[in-house]
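Hey team,

Sharing the 60S ribosomal protein L13 run so nobody has to redo it. Sequence (212 residues) first:
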Amino acid sequence: MGFGKNNVLHRNHFRKDWQSRVKTWFDQPGKKHSRRVARQAKAAKAGLRPTELLRPAVRPPTVRYNRKLRAGRGFTKVELKQAGIRAKEALSIGIPVDPRRRNRSEEGLKLNVERLEAYKARLVVFPKKAGKAKKGDTADASKDTPAVHNVQKALPIPAGVQLEQPREITADEKNAPSAYTALRKARSDARLVGVRAERKRKAEEEEAAKKK
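Structure output:
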């Protein structure tokens, strides 16, 4: 039952001072920008180190987007094996590994292996101790070579589809049947494979019987 008219509200607890107990986060956009600037400054100060990880070129799912190429999460173990890179070694030189991804096509596998080989050819690994190079370290890492500067830039993702240049329509294309006719004929041929094979077998048996 509610209160009527201009009566006093019973048990009115309005002195909790909740404003002093609320935690706000109004500086979130500014802090995000500050962290990004700090990461860039740290990467530039580190010297000859890739500013971002090398990502594989993958195709997005669904028919709507799979004609494009985008950066994936990481390389598969098959791609790393063909490029001659161990999984633990890859994690230490800026190459992420995705154990869940699978290679569904030879073209995609070849493309990512070529990306790894190009990255590996441009990579310069400094020894932990000066003058004591271990296996996998670059012998002349101390020299200022063009490869040292190029390693800063990430390999760009190639275009997913290469557009064809305009050309004239040939005579064969003009005289070719319509797409509807071609599809109907292909569907009919696929449906009548067994019938035609049986018909051919019976004809061969009849010819063999006549020769006897």
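The two ends are 109 Å apart (CA to CA).

Ping me if you want the raw files.
A.
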